[in-house]
């Protein structure tokens, strides 16, 4: 039998994090789950390490674990929960993409604000540092935000 955790589809990937807490109407249910102290310490240490930025809280860790386990059990049970897993993983992806787009928009706005401050105060060191940081970030930013960042920097360089 194939390993259910290794199965990837357009809805599910074992390499993704699924931390969505509420549905689109804002509905949620709360679980209170006691865990052994060693497990809590390990989860807390993992979150504090920031090796996995999608896991910001122990609750994120638990929500992600629930989706992965539900996927596994659904596969073992003949797909009884595939619809729920597909819906939740899709909505988690939508939330992640929306959050990423918002963060990238904020990066552009904050960079522009910083460059305006540097320009209006004639602070050449701040201006040069802001330009350098923006260009260092550009390669790690996806399109179309990369192009917009280059255009922003180009407007201020002239």
Walk me through this protein's architecture.
By secondary structure, the chain is mainly alpha-helical. The chain is 63% helix and 0% strand. α3 runs parallel beside α5. The longest helix has 39 residues. The termini are far apart. The mean pLDDT is 86.
Defining key terms:
158 residues, mainly alpha, 5 helices
Specify the helix fraction band.
55-70%
Number of strands: 0
Class based on secondary structure composition and strand pairing:
mainly alpha
Radius of gyration: 21 Å
* C-alpha geometry: elongated
* Biggest beta-sheet profile: none
Low-confidence stretches: none
Q: What portion of the residues fall into strands of 2 or more residues?
A: under 5%
Measure the end-to-end span: 63 Å
One letter per element, helices H and strands E, the order comes to: HHHHH
Please tell me the overall pLDDT.
86
Number of helices: 5
Task: Outline the fold blueprint.
Layout: H1 37-49, H2 58-76, H3 82-120, H4 124-138, H5 145-157
């Amino acid at each position: 039998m194939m390993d259910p955790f290794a199965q990837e589809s357009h809805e599910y990937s074992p390499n993704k994090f699924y931390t969505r807490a509420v549905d689109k109407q804002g509905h949620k249910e709360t679980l209170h789950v006691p865990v052994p102290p060693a497990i809590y310490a390990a989860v807390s240490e993992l979150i504090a390490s920031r090796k996995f930025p999608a896991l910001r809280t122990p609750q994120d860790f638990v929500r992600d674990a629930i989706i992965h386990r539900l996927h596994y059990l659904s596969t073992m049970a003949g797909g009884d929960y595939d619809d729920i897993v597909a819906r939740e993983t899709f909505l988690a992806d939508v939330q992640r993409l929306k959050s990423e787009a918002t963060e990238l928009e904020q990066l552009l706005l904050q960079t522009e604000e910083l460059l305006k401050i540097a320009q209006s105060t004639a602070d050449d060191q701040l201006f040069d540092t802001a330009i350098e940081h923006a260009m260092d970030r550009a390669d790690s930013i996806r399109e179309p935000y990369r192009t917009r960042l280059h255009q922003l920097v180009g407007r201020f360089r002239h």
